[in-house]
Write the structure tokens for this entry.
Amino acid sequence: MSEKKKESVLAGFKAFLMRGNVVDLAVAVVIGAAFTNIVNSIVKGIISPLVGAIGTKNLDVYTSCLKAPCGVDAKGEPTGVNIMWGSVLNAALSFLITAAVVYFLMVLPMAKYLARVEARRKAKEGVQESMEITELEVLKDIRDVLVAQRSGNGEGSSRAQGTPGARDAF
């Protein structure tokens, strides 16, 4: 591999790493890992004991024997064909509980917050737009008065001196 090609590959790799979305992704992974610990603590410390109060904390003990004899021999190796449907149920329940915790503690509050921010932004935009429209109308009235004054007809000068018309907008 030539030196120039090696430099271009390294330069391309450096450019890839320095792109904003790669750095953002790395930060998201780190934050996600830290947040996983929080969610797991909530599930293990609060949700699982509540579920355990109704049934059992450990669903892994539920199995079905497909081919007898199921169990463990003297060497400690499993015998028979054991279907461990309790493990699958436990994983599915853990997923649902984790998803509910993430949704109700993170996604829903953040969505409400972003909706409020967007509503404030739109309200501010609407006020600014109405102010711009009002300013535009006033500027048009001033322009009309100035055009009337320049043309020399009596109406323009009388409007500028206080007769009803564009001057009243001030």
Q: What stands out?
A: The longest helix spans residues 85-151.
